[in-house]
Structure formats: structure tokens, C-alpha cells
Automatic annotation (TrEMBL):
Membrane topology of the entry: Single-pass type II membrane protein
Native organism: Coemansia reversa (strain ATCC 12441 / NRRL 1564)
Descriptive protein name: Mannosyl-oligosaccharide glucosidase
Signal sequence bounds: 1-17
Listed InterPro entries: 6-hairpin_glycosidase_sf, 6hp_glycosidase-like_sf, Glyco_hydro_63_C, Glyco_hydro_63N, Glyco_hydro_63N_sf, Glycoside_hydrolase_63
Span of domain Glycosyl hydrolase family 63 C-terminal: 304-791
Domain called Glycosyl hydrolase family 63 N-terminal: residue spans: 35-242
Length: 793
């Protein structure tokens, strides 16, 4: 069946992002202004941009000068191959303050950034102070560069001397602005060899050199490549010149070769990319200040440190107020790691804009040979989302985002709501949201071609419901009698958000979110139904993978077929009906609440009827197999196959329990708790394994979801035990408490120990010895360790 083409999909997305009403639009307008500027380029070690397309980008670059090949590995975008010893935010409030540490032993430098914002027109003004030092093994120093680049319409002019680079510019969305790059007065460069001291035209090492260039506006994100080519060309010319002047003796030091030939000024309106470079050795600092045209939003270098100290103190106080970790007995080191987890999650927030590669047709399955149209680029659209991993997954993932928002929602409900709203703004008219948001050339450059296309029949676990449910519960328990009176609190000056912030969430928000849930639920039931409308099946299966389930290589039926029924998907749909009942009731939609409640009752019965295996006492997938006793001559072909269970103990079989779909008094819960607690099955001293140790697929193949410990699922287990089973008098209460306490202790101990040893949070953890593995830093759902420590579920 041919579905809507990509351009129709884009129009449907825009149509669905309808008006939320005057009160909510006013709130959104204030929030948009407060959050317009930020560290919204999480794929860079440090970068800023506004939440508007085709605008002003900025970013940091550096490289050490001891090795003359280091220019080939300029640090700019976060890359696993860079092997940085540490990087990530140690404090970030998501609004107007962020503090980050970057340690690069290979290039011999440690850098700290402190980002601040002040409110004003067009998103206000911001500044970042970089401080650092070259390491003992660094003799020649380090090249530091900061750039501003215009992707869209506008202009920039530059004035520069050794003390400052000043940029004046204007764009349609930002209005007039001024930016400055100011090196620290005490910065020192590496010593020049005596042979070069008398040679003219050697750059003023330790101060700032600047250059303005014209670059294709669609290539500003490739600033490093542009800088690299210019640097190498100039270095070649300098090397030739120095060798001529010294009769071939040199020496050719990195500080001399790789200092750019700066310009004093540039008023060329075609120049849209400006670099300021400093070559330093020892301790150093420099400020980057961006100011909007609002005179009340000016920033002076002398004020940056004072503002940063104040906001650092505010962050620490607010963190303890919300999570109470010191009150719970955690020591200073453990609290700092928890702060780092939250801050790095927030530091992964990004504004993404561009076209997505979308297929107009569903992806054919198995033996189907249906011709499909070539995928096309959609109309450009935007997304405000959190990247799970800045080096490896610097884009939005639907499956991950719901877990991210559980933590963000505790810290800043308004910010969480803004991310939810952005995701639902990408929904098409059928309720489909692309599970992976690869928007624009920059994002596609990080993704293999075979994974770029998004298919309109592919679903993903609806984890946004976790955040929506949490926000709805927060609203329902609020004691505010007039929440609309609190709309002015949508922006919290200097990050000082108090309980009033929660009251910006109104019943209108929940009503709108309830509408989106209804559309999404309709998409699931229409597109993921099993054969003859019986059960549900993830589309997108291959022999080895079910990427759409989120559990990639978790073992399923072999070979895959259209007759499969997946217990995890059935559980997700049942959970969606349960949440729909709650939201419909909360918004006064009694008819829909009654309808969803009937569906919920039906699904709860079918869950056991379809997926509970009484022989193995567990929930299982289902498929069909040719009957062993089938006689081709005697039996009817329609009776050739029989339904069989596909059982693999692990996260899939746990999902009915972690989503709270099992009655506390049910014997089924006892069997599941036994499975969890058995060290020969799922239990380890470091967390619950994704697949049973007794399973033949355990640790085999890619070994992605075939044994390793994942924090998101361990959090769900703890959350369900805490909310659904520990406080309820039942035959399983004592066992649930025992598992909860021991599992929580194991997870906290191991994640913090690994962070202390490696300085990173990891994608997953080894079930045999607990060491971190997979990509790092992984500051997506692994940061749920903060909620586990705080026991906020």
C-alpha cells in the first residue's frame, strides 16, 4: 500500500502542530525567548546556536603543537577516536549556566568552560569563559580557536588587534549583535627559538589573530575542515619562507607554522565565517561574549566570573533541594558524580534542523517483493531533543527520549514539556513519529547510509508516555488553585527555579498531550497489529535484529515471519491504553476514558491468553511452525501450522511486570521475581542482565542486548517494584523489597565506581565484572542513576 510522500508527511507534521490556545502560546513565547540561545550543538566539545534555523553558529577548536601532525586531528566535534581522557558538563541548569571540563592528554591540554546567559531581546546575550593549562608533557603549547559562522542571511564585519577580535553583525532572526573574542591578559605563548626571534611576520604568540572568510552557507558546520585546509596551506608557505631565511636550518616549530596569518579588519559583507586563534603555553584564559542589541543585556568580562560563581552556588543548592542526596547520606564525591550525570544529560540538549530521508512506502517484509519508491528528503523541520551520546549518537532518538525526560522532568518540568512538545510537533497526521531524527547533512554525516531512511510503518516504544504520565501526576497533586496566575514564572531568572515553576504546567497542556497520545495509539493499533488483528508485531524485523523494538539483537523467532506476535509490543500498547484512561479521565473526556478502559481490560486478558507460557512460567513471544505431524496427503493445508512460544528470559519477558501490568497477588509475579533474583538467569552483582545467563544466545553475536546491563531497564524494574509491589500487602512483598534494596545498591555502587575509575558514564555495563562498555560518554538514560539514588520514580 502506497502511503503519503515525504512532502505530504512534512505538511501533515506542520498541520498537527496546531495552536495550543492563547494562554499556552503566551507561555511558549516566553519560554522560546528564554531558551533561544544555548549550548545546542551537543556534537561539539563546545558550541552554541539559537533555536532558529539557518542562523549564527559558534564553536571551539584546539590542537597541540608538539607533534606537527596534530593539525590533522583538530578537536572540534566529539569523536570516540579522539580518546579524550574526560569531557562533559559538571554543572548545567539547562537555561543560563553550564560548566564543563575537557582533558586531552594526547594534545597536552586541559580546558574548562563556563557558559552564562542574561535575558534580553532576541534571546538575550551570552558569554563563555575558557580557562585551562597545558600539561607537563606539552612543550610547544596549544592552538585555541573560536569561530562564528552565518548559515543564513545576514552579514558580519570584523575588527582585530592583539587584544581583541570584535565582530559586528546582523541577521533577520537575531537583529543586530556584537561578539568579542578576548584573550587573557596573562596568556603566554611558547618561547621562540633564538634563530626565529629576529624574523619578521611571526604571529604574536599568546595573543589573538583573526581571519574572516567566505564559505558556502550550507557548509558552516564544516568549519573545522575549512580551518584545517587554510592552516595547512599557510603552514606550507611559512615553512618554505623560514627555510629560505635560515638557509635551510629552521627550526620549524608548531607554534610558528600553525599560527594563522591574521587580518586587522574585514568589512566584506560576503564574509560569513570568522576565526580567532590564540597560541598559548602554561595557564591561559579567554572570553567569548555575544551581545544582542538590548542595552540592558550587556556583559562585561569582569562580570563573567561573578555571575558564574553565583549560578554555580544556585545549581548546587537546587540540586540538593530536588534530589536530597546529601540528606540520604551520599558523600561529596557521589553527589558530584550525580551532578555530572544530570548536567551532562542537559548538556546533550540540541536544536536540530534539516530534512529527513523518508520512504513514501512501508519497508517490505521477508518474502514480500513489492516495489517501493526511492526515499526522498522531507521538507526541513526542527527538533529540540537530547542526544544520548554526544560522540556516537548526536541526534534525537524517540526510544531514548522518554527516559531522558524522566530525569529532566524532575529538574525542570517546563524544559521537559518543551522537548515533549517538539517531538509531538514532528508527528504526522496518522500518529507516526520517526524513531530516529537524522536532520540535515551534518547529522547524516554521522550515520551509515543503511540506517538513514525512516519508514512510515516503523514504530518505537512509546516512552514519551513516561514523561507525560509524570507531568500529569505532578499537575494532579499540585495544590495551586489558579495555575494560570503562575504563567509568568515560565522563565526562572538565573536558574533560580522554585516550586512555582511546576505551576506553568496547566490542564490545557495535559489535554493537548492526551490528544497526541490518542493519535499515537491509533498509529500503533493500525500499523503494528498481528495477522487477523490478533496481538501485535514489530515491523522492521530481520533475522538478527528488531531495531524498532529498541532491543536490537535480543533473540526472537528464527526465521522471522509475519505470523509473529511480540509480547513487549503487546505490553507497550496495553500500557498506552492504561495511560490514555488516566489522561482522558483527568481532562474530563469520560467517553474516551470508558472506551480505553474497555480496551485495557480486553488487552489485560489477551496478554495472558496470548503470551503466558504455563510450562515455563514466563511471558514469551509467539510464532507459527509447521506441525511435526502434518501429512501433506491427508491433512488440510490450512492446518499445516501451529502456534508456538518463543521464550528467551530477559528484558522482553519482564516487560509486563516493569510496566505494572501484573497484579501484585498474581502467582505470575512470583515466577518473574524468581527469574530476576536467580544468578543463573538475570541476577548479577552489577545489575539485571538483559538476557538470561542460561540462554543459548547469551553473550553471542553482537552481544548488545544479549546479556549486558542497561540502566534504563534496571530503572524500570526498580520503579515498578517501588510503585506497584513493595507497598502492597501480597505473598511477594518481602521478595520485592529484597530485590529492590539489593538491586538499587548494586547499581549505584557499580555505576559510580566505573565513573570514578574511567571519568565516564557508559552505554552499558558488563554482567560479569561490571566494567563500562559500549560508547562513552553515554549521558542519555544511564543518567537515570540520579533518580535511582534519589528514589524518584
Amino acid at each position: 500500500m502506497r502511503l503519503l510522500g515525504p512532502w505530504f508527511v512534512a505538511l501533515a507534521m506542520l498541520a498537527l502542530a496546531e495552536d495550543w490556545g492563547p494562554e499556552l502560546d503566551e507561555v511558549q513565547s516566553k519560554l522560546d525567548s528564554a531558551l533561544q540561545w544555548g549550548t545546542y550543538r551537543p556534537n561539539l566539545y563546545f558550541g552554541t546556536r539559537p533555536r532558529v534555523p539557518h542562523s549564527l553558529l559558534s564553536g571551539l577548536m584546539w590542537f597541540g603543537l608538539d607533534d606537527q601532525q596534530n593539525w590533522r586531528s583538530i578537536r572540534h566535534s566529539c569523536e570516540l577516536s579522539d580518546n579524550l581522557d574526560e569531557y562533559g558538563y559538571i554543572r548545567h541548569n539547562g537555561r543560563d549556566f553550564g560548566e564543563q571540563v575537557m582533558l586531552d592528554a594526547e594534545h597536552g591540554v586541559e580546558i574548562r568552560s563556563e557558559f552564562i546567559k542574561v535575558p534580553g531581546e532576541h534571546g538575550g546575550s551570552w558569554a563563555v569563559r575558557f580557562t585551562g593549562r597545558t600539561l607537563e608533557n606539552n612543550l610547544q603549547g596549544v592552538s585555541l580557536a573560536y569561530y562564528f559562522g552565518l548559515e543564513g542571511n545576514g552579514n558580519m564585519s570584523m575588527e582585530a588587534d592583539s587584544a581583541m577580535v570584535t565582530i559586528d553583525g546582523s541577521t533577520p532572526d537575531l537583529g543586530e549583535f556584537k561578539a568579542r573574542i578576548i584573550p587573557g591578559a596573562d596568556n603566554q605563548g611558547p618561547l621562540l627559538p633564538r634563530e626565529l626571534e629576529k624574523i619578521k611576520d611571526i604571529p604574536n604568540i599568546g595573543k589573538v589573530q583573526a581571519i574572516a572568510l567566505e564559505a558556502p552557507r550550507s557548509s558552516i558546520w564544516q568549519a573545522k575542515d575549512i580551518f584545517q585546509k587554510m592552516l595547512f596551506k599557510q603552514a606550507q608557505a611559512k615553512a618554505k619562507d623560514i627555510l629560505q631565511r635560515t638557509n635551510g636550518k629552521g627550526p620549524l616549530t608548531g607554534g610558528v607554522l600553525f599560527g594563522i596569518n591574521g587580518e586587522k579588519s574585514s568589512s566584506d559583507h560576503d564574509n560569513n565565517l570568522i576565526f580567532g586563534q590564540m597560541i598559548v603555553h602554561g595557564e591561559f584564559s579567554f572570553d567569548v561574549i555575544y551581545e544582542c542589541s538590548d542595552k540592558s543585556a550587556t556583559i562585561d568580562s569582569n562580570d563573567i566570573g561573578t555571575i558564574a560563581r553565583s549560578r554555580r552556588e544556585e545549581f548546587d543548592n537546587r540540586f540538593e533541594t530536588i534530589f536530597a542526596l546529601q540528606e540520604k547520606g551520599f558523600n561529596d564525591d557521589e553527589v558530584e558524580m550525580a551532578q555530572k550525570a544530570l548536567s551532562s544529560l542537559i548538556g546533550g540538549m540540541g536544536y536540530f534542523y534539516g530534512s529527513s530521508l523518508v520512504s513514501a512506502d512501508p519497508k517490505p517484509e521477508y518474502s514480500e517483493d513489492e516495489n517501493t519508491a526511492e526515499p526522498e528528503l522531507s521538507e526541513p523541520y526542527s527538533l529540540f531533543a537530547i542526544a544520548p551520546s554526544r560522540p556516537f549518537f548526536p541526534r534525537g532518538f524517540l526510544w531514548d527520549e522518554g527516559f531522558h525526560l524522566l530525569l529532566l522532568g524532575q529538574w525542570d518540568p517546563d524544559l521537559s514539556m518543551d522537548v515533549i512538545r517538539s517531538w509531538y510537533g514532528t508527528m504526522d497526521s496518522r500518529g507516526w513519529i520517526a524513531r530516529e531524527q537524522i536532520l540535515g547533512d551534518e547529522a547524516r554525516s554521522k550515520v551509515p547510509k543503511e540506517f538513514q531512511v525512516q519508514y512510515p510503518n516503523f514504530a518505537n516504544p512509546p516512552t514519551l508516555l513516561f514523561a507525560i504520565k509524570a507531568l500529569a501526576e505532578r499537575l494532579e497533586t499540585s495544590d495551586s488553585t489558579n495555575m494560570l496566575d503562575q504563567l509568568a514564572q515560565v522563565y526562572c531568572p538565573h536558574g533560580q527555579c522554585d516550586s512555582k515553576t511546576e505551576k506553568t504546567l496547566t490542564p490545557k497542556h495535559i489535554e493537548k498531550l492526551s490528544h497526541y497520545l490518542s493519535k499515537q495509539l491509533q498509529f500503533f493499533t493500525n500499523t503494528q497489529a498481528g495477522l487477523a488483528g490478533r496481538g501485535y508485531r514489530w515491523r522492521g524485523r530481520t533475522m538478527e535484529h528488531t531495531l524498532t523494538s529498541g532491543l536490537d539483537d535480543y533473540p526472537r523467532a528464527r526465521p522471522p515471519s509475519t505470523s509473529e506476535l511480540h509480547v513487549d509490543l503487546f505490553s507497550w500498547v496495553t500500557f498506552m491504553f492504561a495511560v490514555d484512561v488516566e489522561l482522558a479521565a483527568q481532562t474530563g473526556d469520560g467517553e474516551r476514558a470508558l472506551s480505553s478502559e474497555r480496551q485495557l481490560d480486553k488487552h489485560m486478558k489477551q496478554l495472558d491468553e496470548l503470551h503466558w507460557n504455563t510450562e515455563k512460567d514466563m511471558y514469551c513471544d509467539v510464532t507459527t511452525r509447521k506441525r511435526d505431524d502434518f501429512d501433506e496427503l491427508e491433512d488440510n493445508e490450512a492446518d499445516s501450522e501451529e502456534s508456538v512460544f518463543v521464550c528467551h528470559k530477559g528484558y522482553v519477558s519482564l516487560l509486563p511486570m516493569v510496566l505494572g501490568l501484573i497484579d501484585p497477588g498474581s502467582a505470575k509475579l512470583g515466577y518473574i521475581l524468581d527469574m530476576i533474583e536467580d544468578p543463573d538467569e538475570l541476577w548479577s552483582d552489577y545489575g539485571i542482565r538483559s538476557l538470561s545467563k542460561s540462554d543459548p544466545y547469551y553473550g553471542k553475536g553482537e552481544n548488545y542486548w544479549r546479556g549486558p546491563i542497561w540502566l534504563n531497564f534496571n530503572y524500570l524494574v526498580l520503579s515498578s517494584l517501588h510503585k506497584n509491589y513493595i507497598s502492597v500487602d501480597s505473598p511477594h512483598q518481602a521478595q520485592a523489597k529484597r530485590i529492590y534494596n539489593k538491586l538499587r545498591s548494586n547499581l549505584i555502587s557499580n555505576v559510580l565506581a566505573q565513573c570514578k575509575e574511567t571519568r565516564f558514564f557508559w552505554e552499558q555495563y558488563n554482567p560479569e565484572d561490571g566494567h563500562g562498555q559500549g560508547t562513552h560518554p553515554f549521558t542519555g538514560w544511564t543518567t537515570l542513576i540520579v533518580l535511582i539514588m534519589a528514589e524518584r520514580y
